[in-house]
Amino acid sequence: MIKHSIGIDPGNSGAIVVLADGEPHAWLNMPHIKVGSTVRINGAQIADFLFPYKGAPTFLELVGVMPKQGISSAFTFGHSAGVIQGIIQGMGNPLTLIRPQQWKKAAGLIGTDKDAARSKAVLLWPNWRALDSKGKGGALADAALIGRFGDHERIRHICNSLSNEKTWLKP
Question: Edge-to-edge strands of the sheet including 95-98?
Answer without folding.
Answer: 23-29, 15-20, 4-9, 58-61, 95-98
